[in-house]
Amino acid sequence: MTALACRLTGFGAALPARRETNDDLAAHLDTSDAWIRTRTGIAARHVAVAESTSDLAIAAALEALADADVAPADLDLIVVATSTPDSACPATAARVAAALDTPAAAFDINGACTGFVHALAVASSLLGVGALGDRGDRLALVVGADRYRSLTDPADRTTTVLFGDGAGAAVLRTGDHHGAGLLGLDLRGDPDGLAALQVRPDARWLHMDGPEVFRRAVRSLVSSAGSALERAGVAAGDVDRFIPHQANVRIVDAVAGRLGIAADRVELDLVDRANTSAASIPLALHSAVRGGRLQADDRVLLGAVGAGMGAGSVLLRWPR
């Protein structure tokens, strides 16, 4: 594919005030800190009580815009990835735009845990083809925000220990940025995997077939990442930083191992946050940037798989 000249610039994160440890869960579930850590790598998570999805999205967006030194009025587009909106309408992105007082086009994408990759792909495509204007640099705010603890049965240890709430945001700027760009992209579905992870139409809580999710998630993410790398002409061993969806440590380790990406090049951000669905990749990006783990010209691979078992991967060259 032809590389799109663009860069991610400006990152924001927002987590609910309430922090829940494994020991807190063990007080009312048949589980333990050791059981959860061994199987998932998770020690704690943040749980929204007073905070709505849009509250978290707005807070992350404000930090990202300030970090990028971008005024809301200069935005061309806002895309929010969420499957836990405040309400059926308006879109969470519209609520974010209203809070920012910007006339930017704004809409949501529901790709579950793959949502941020979907949102980044859609935003880069719209900006890249000039659909929203023909000035040299165009700007999009891409947000992942979810409250998956609102979908998990508090009495179900197979799901409630895995998820946390939060939001992450990044500003996407197109234009020539010294070789920075989107080098490779892959999006795919798995129609046979629909039942593995879903909130059934007649149910309130998230249903998960753990072993089936593991098998399909690893297979789909390895295939998707491999295709994105192939389209970019980059070998997996040449990836400088792999920032996957933070599902659980076993899935992350299995995917990195099968791709041949060394463990010290993998960003793990789930220990204190758990699986925050569409927020997990932008939250991990925020941590990687703040920790100085992304350098100029690095090849950065993002990859996610979510409910419906759709997967997506993006390979970026990091800006100077």
CATH class of the largest domain: Alpha Beta
> How many DSSP H or I helices?
9
Radius of gyration: 18 Å
Distance between the termini: 22 Å
What is the CATH H-level superfamily of the largest domain? Thiolase/Chalcone synthase
The helix content, as a percent range, equals 25-40%
What integer is the average pLDDT?
Answer: 94
- Counting DSSP E segments of at least 2 residues, the number of strands comes to 13
Order of helices and strands: EEHHEHEHEHEHEEEEHEHHEE
The secondary structure category is alpha+beta
User: Uncertain segments of ≥5 residues (pLDDT<50)?
Assistant: none
* CATH topology group of the largest domain: Peroxisomal Thiolase, Chain A, domain 1
The profile of the biggest β sheet is: 9 strands, mixed
Query: Judging by the overall fold, what is the CATH architecture of the largest domain?
Result: 3-Layer(aba) Sandwich
Integer tally of domains: 2
Proportion of beta-strand residues: 15-25%
Strand order of the largest sheet: 5-4-6-7-1-8-13-12-11
Shape: globular
